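step 3/5: co-fold with S-adenosylmethionine
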Amino acid sequence: MDPLNYWAIAERDIEIQNPITDRKLRLLDDYCDVADGLSVLDIGCGKAWLMRQWAERHAIEGVGIDVNARFLEVARRKAPARGRLTFHNSSAKRFPVAMESYDIVLCLGASFAIGDVPAALEWMVAATKPGGRVVIGDLVLKHPPVVSKGDILPPDTIGMMGIVERHGAEVSATISASEADFERYASHHRHATLTWARANPQHPDHDEVLAKSRTDWLYYQRTIRPMLGWTILVGRKG
Ligand SMILES: C[S@@+](CC[C@H](N)C(=O)[O-])C[C@H]1O[C@@H](n2cnc3c(N)ncnc32)[C@H](O)[C@@H]1O
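step 4/5: write tokens
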């Protein structure tokens, strides 16, 4: 099964493809001082809900990059009222980005498209103009483990702040998903994939979709719910 097909099924009914709610994402308007004339780069933009909201209200120039053409179809469906958005169906690493060329560089739930969180931040900060904003959202550890089980775990929020600051941006705001927000996001995937499987029993991907859906659901219940959260950090490049 092509993983892009899986995610198109699991996220077919949602436009915000991360655990943060629309209300919390709107805080980024202020935290990023979004205004007419700013340039925005969105790595792993998916359906680009946030950038589309900004472009409804502000004359921004936005660029979105994503490997999944089905998500970009949704992102392109309606021209925004004020801004101009262009979308590229490309892997992030293949997309040429000039140094210090964007006012705001976003990467919500897609650091793996560049590498790990430190690699993504290095890339993002390099692409940001001095005084601009980097906005990264990813899994964070809720509490440092007392005994390491050998799992590869993400940093906690303090660790994430250290990574942002080591890459030359000062963290000016954080926004976190609540446990209920993350539960809603994970339940949406589970519900959408089970519904699809019931409606498509003969589809060649049927069994693999169900198997991945179950694995991800159990990972959420066993590991994410007790140990992990999801936080956006806003950094201002010096
Ligand atoms: C968790 S979703 C987040 C989407 C969007 N940023 C949001 O928060 O609503 C991750 C996105 O990264 C995209 N992606 C995965 N690998 C990628 C790559 N190598 N280059 C660009 N985008 C990639 C996926 O297609 C997906 O749209």
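step 5/5: annotate
The domain at 15-177+229-237 is CATH 3.40.50.150 (Rossmann fold).
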